[in-house]
Design goal:
CATH topology of the largest domain: Immunoglobulin-like
CATH class of the largest domain: Mainly Beta
Structural class: mainly beta
Low-confidence stretches: 1-10, 476-480, 482-498
CATH superfamily of the largest domain: Immunoglobulins
Helix content: under 10%
Number of helices: 1
Shape: rod-shaped
Strand content: over 45%
Largest sheet: 11 strands, mixed
Number of domains: 6
Distance between the termini: 242 Å
Mean pLDDT: 90
CATH architecture of the largest domain: Sandwich
């Protein structure tokens, strides 16, 4: 028990003496408890005192307090309540109770408060570690005991820090802040907490903010800048990209897309650009180059057009060696027409040989040159007269044809005339071969030679007969000379006279 004596200081009007007692002291309690101190007051009877305390937070069960009228005694309880943190932090508190009236007195006491529960541990966390711009960031706090403090969010360069103060009356966790993700980069969330007393805790966590889309760049290489290729994304046209240009594209995070460009890009006449790989699949930030290779066209033709099939034509990479087929010497055309191979021309220049080998360093055109030829048919029945000149002739040339006439000895076949594409009576003729031609020899039978020969034979026979007859008459009149009549003949020897 503590006893305090306060002596009077005023000699002219001495105050009544006051005596105070405080029990029990010291006391030890936990933060969840209360401590009650009993204060006894001894003074002049019926004296009123006002009670006060310093050093702790407490309340008196009665205030003011009056001593009883007989013994001059009074009592009052001082209650120090530690059941509601943070009224009292763990530690030892010295305090003073004072009774003030006509006289006054003070008495000191001690209160020790022990901590209840674990030390303060504060943990801060976000609902995700990676956000996309525009998403909501939620910050939560977990404390092992009642606490107060502040959460601070710092971000990339130029980002203004955010502060979120907090107070909790119990242990636990819960969301304390939320905001929309904006600037791209890494953020730090730190917490400074205390348990309203001497317990402190600090921690931090980080999260990142990424774009809500990823960027892709594509380049068309190998195409001159004056040309462009179409771009398709997932089968839909998305404009063009010029040669050596880079095109930027943006897609939502988490999506996969197919990017396609033209496999062939037309250039100057006979020139194109070829991409062996013209599609690409992408699902994250990346870049890709579509590589084009120049190709030249090799045309293989015939003149006249379409005379015969040709091989070797097509598109070829720069520097590749290609070869044409061999041109057939002759090619049948429509009835009475054929085509005869003359030579190859490469880009208009005649070439030797019947097959071309070409290096594709530019567009080239090879033409198999053929001359058009028309057939001349020389028709004579049964081949009479040994017809000559039939065959094929270059278009526009002059063909000569003939037969031998007459044919035979006594009874002869004689050419009367030609008909068809030529009219004439001479055994030989000419015709211009500007189309297929046919000439027919028309013959007739001639007996003139037989008649002539027959006449001659008849004369000879008659003459012979006459001569024979004259010889027979000359045997009886040998002495008579033959008399000449007209143009008669004298036959036999002259008669000799005896």
């Amino acid at each position: 028990m503590l006893v305090a004596l306060l002596l009077p200081t005023n000699v002219h009007a001495p105050p009544p003496p006051v005596f105070l007692t405080l029990t029990p002291s010291p006391q030890t309690i936990s933060q969840t408890q209360t401590a009650t101190y009993h204060i006894g007051i001894t003074s002049t009877p019926s004296t009123s005192f006002t009670m006060s305390v310093s050093g702790v937070v407490g309340s008196f069960t009665a205030n003011p307090v009056t001593t009883d009228p007989i013994g001059g005694l009074a009592s009052v309880d001082l209650v120090a309540d530690a059941s509601t943190p943070p009224t009292y932090c763990p530690g030892t508190y010295s305090f003073t109770v004072t009774a003030t009236g006509p006289g006054s007195a003070s008495i000191g006491g001690v209160l020790t408060v022990n901590q209840v529960g674990p030390p303060l541990i504060a943990t801060v966390f976000t609902d995700k570690t990676n956000y996309q711009t525009g998403q909501t960031i939620r910050i939560s706090l977990s404390v092992s005991r009642p606490a107060e403090g502040q959460i601070t969010v710092t971000g990339p360069s130029g980002y203004s820090p955010l502060g979120y103060p907090f107070q909790t009356s119990s242990a636990g966790s819960g969301a304390v802040a939320s905001f929309t993700a904006g600037a791209i980069g890494t953020y730090s969330v730190s917490v400074q907490a205390d348990d309203y007393c001497s317990g402190f805790s600090s921690t931090q966590t980080t999260f990142t903010v990424s774009p809500n889309s990823y960027d892709v760049s594509i380049t068309a290489s190998g195409i001159p800048s004056q040309y462009s290729t179409n771009v398709q994304i997932d089968g839909h046209n998305q404009g063009t990209i010029q040669g050596s240009q880079t095109k930027s594209l943006s897609f939502p995070i988490g999506s996969t897309h197919s990017i396609m460009v033209d496999q062939y890009v037309a250039g100057d006449t006979g020139v194109r650009y070829y991409a062996s790989q013209n599609s690409w699949s992408v699902s994250s930030t990346d870049s890709h180059t579509f590589n084009y290779q120049i190709q030249y066209q090799f045309n293989v033709l015939t003149d006249p057009s379409g005379v015969t099939p040709t091989t070797g034509g097509g598109w070829y990479p720069d520097g590749q060696s290609v070869q044409t087929n061999q041109a057939p010497p002759t090619v049948a055309g429509p009835s009475g027409t054929q085509f005869a191979f003359k030579d190859w021309e490469l880009d208009g220049a005649p070439q030797s040989g019947n097959q071309l080998t070409v290096t594709m360093n530019a567009p080239h055109t090879a033409v198999a040159k053929y001359s058009t030829q028309y057939q001349l048919v020389v028709d004579s029945p049964g081949g009479l007269g040994n017809p000559q000149g039939a065959g094929y002739y270059d278009a526009g040339s002059t063909a000569t044809f003939s037969v031998t006439s007459p044919v035979g000895f006594l009874v002869q076949q004689v050419l009367v005339h030609w008909q068809g594409d030529y009219t004439g009576t001479n055994p030989q003729g000419t015709v211009t071969m500007d189309q297929p031609r046919t000439v027919h020899a028309v013959w007739t039978t001639s007996y003139t030679q037989a008649y002539i020969v027959g006449g001659i034979l008849a004369v000879v026979i008659v003459a012979a007969a006459i001569m024979m007859m004259r010889r027979g008459k000359g045997g009886t009149k040998a002495d008579k000379p033959a008399k000449k009549k007209g143009f008669g003949l004298r036959i036999g020897k002259p008669k000799t006279e005896s």
